[in-house]
Write a structure and sequence with these properties.
218 residues; alpha+beta; globular
């Protein structure tokens, strides 16, 4: 019982500490982005990428969902920003894929799970997201596990997942055929009313509350 309490307290601290700089009141849409850095200095490391967004104070952590397109450190471009909770993805890069909204929600669910997942799993999580939109993206066992978990959440209908706190950042030329040009990103967005409460973040896929209840009954 004590161990469960400690784990819950640690996750609560993480949830309380998390704050997206996109909460800045001066945020504008569409926006100019600049790619600042890759995790560990290489794009292959996946989440988090770091970008600057005009009107937002401080860097923004983002997850790339576009395995094919490139983008160089220091490059700037104009992007449309779509709130995933609105179910409107007309401006998103992969909106023409079959069941595209479900694909974006699977990717958004994986991104939200980074709030309660150790950073050593971030690369697998990003590769799972890449594979959702591009079957050519590598998929090792760790990434496959995350992909299957996202698909399982989709089959359940994503109960309680706050997709209104996920934004899709898409270059204005959303179908750009030049693979050397900028990619699409997802980011956790706390601009909107009703930013996820720590309790909501703790419930995202951890199963800890259910485990705690079973512990009490055992």
């Amino acid at each position: 019982m004590k161990r469960f309490a400690v784990i819950l307290a640690m996750l609560l601290a993480v949830a309380c500490a998390y704050a997206s700089p996109i909460s800045d009141a001066n945020y504008t849409d569409p926006a100019t982005l600049t790619l600042l850095s890759f995790s560990g200095g290489a794009w292959q490391n996946g989440y988090p990428y770091t970008v600057a967004i005009n009107g937002v104070s401080g860097p923004v952590q983002a997850m790339c969902d576009d395995y094919s397109h490139g983008g160089a450190i220091g490059e700037s471009w104009v992007a449309n920003i779509t709130n995933l909770g609105n179910d409107g993805i007309d401006l998103a890069r992969f909106n023409l894929l079959p069941d595209a909204l479900t694909s974006y929600k699977e990717a958004g669910w994986i991104l939200l799970e980074t709030l309660v997942t150790p950073s050593n799993e971030y690369a697998d999580m990003n590769y799972a997201v890449w594979h959702i939109f591009d079957s050519a993206a590598p998929l090792d066992q760790g990434a496959l596990s995350w992909l299957e978990a996202a698909e399982a959440e989709a089959a359940r209908g994503f109960p309680g997942v706050p997709f209104d706190h996920v934004s899709i950042i898409t270059p204005v030329d959303q179908y750009d055929p030049n693979l050397q040009n900028p990619q699409e990103f997802l980011t956790i967005d706390s601009r909107l009313p009703g930013t996820p409460e720590p309790g909501t973040l703790l419930l995202l896929g951890t199963g800890l509350v259910g485990l705690w209840k079973r512990k009490l009954l055992s």
